[in-house]
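Entry: Phosphoribosylformylglycinamidine cyclo-ligase
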Amino acid sequence: MATTSTDPYADAGVDTAAGDLAVELMKAAVSRTHTSDVLGGVGGFAGLFDASALLSFTRPLLATSTDGVGTKVAIAQALDVHDTIGQDLVGMVVDDIVVVGAKPLFMTDYIACGKVVPERIAAIVTGIANACAATGTALVGGETAEHPGLLGEHDYDVAGAAVGVVEADAVLGPEKVQHGDVVVAISSSGLHSNGFSLVRHILAERKLAFTDDASEFGGPVGTALLEPTRLYTSPLLRVIDEMPHAVHALSHVTGGGIAANLARVVPPGAWVEVDRSTWSPQPVFRILADWGGLSLEDTEGTWNLGVGFLAVVAQDAASAVTHALTAAGLPAWVVGRVTVGARELDGFVQGAKGVDGGAVRLVGAYAG
């Protein structure tokens, strides 16, 4: 006698009970990001955020950003380590908002997977929640979608979006950059979340798996590569708040490298030469470049090479800004100056990603 399934959705590969368990496992971590501005708690169809505070603004501008982590998720999956990839997501999304001087308000996340493993999903979201808490961002909602047949059982991808607010006359950007401004570099924690397609290509050429030990890294290759993205939001906002008018522009060094991302926040007609000799890229960059038969200069359009953020600041504020950031745990140093005026621009990167910006090039040799 034929039997009829009581749960045809489960027969098709979607386990709603596992999804419910994942929500229960992550609930406490998500709730810790909530302040009195968040209404409704966890699990609603939409997250609610009380925007009454915006009434105190003269002209509040909302800033929004969305991003993912890219192919770095392949390393987390290979090592079965999922509690740091969430910080990468927050770093990629929320730290784009602070570039315009905005304070993040709230964030949502999206996870697509082949199979919901509650503990795995909870680990990812707990990482997101912890990083949201560190940046003062409420995690007000999210979605976990199970896609059997499209993604493998252990495959997943993560993405997120965030919203922040800034007073209109406090927006940072190229319009505020002036001749003589100083460019301050802020250290990265490593690769962050960009350039992993090149990393995977290099490892494939050497027939190395993420789980393989490498003497250069003192352990599994993937462990060094999984170092989470540094979070810049809170220290940068503190500097902006405590030193009004000191910071004119910020640049988040993500895809495209240092020159392309700095060029996006330098005005047309201005140029910057970034002095490589002022810092030494971390070993992870040197090892990977060597394995790939590349020079560090060859990778400048792909990796951040030790610089995760750049600040363009008033000349008389450069020392105070670098000191404040370094004291907050973000090593910072001067790498160049803004010059407005005509010059030959061979070898410069001019603008990027559709932005008609200034011109930037890296000069000199990296410190040993």
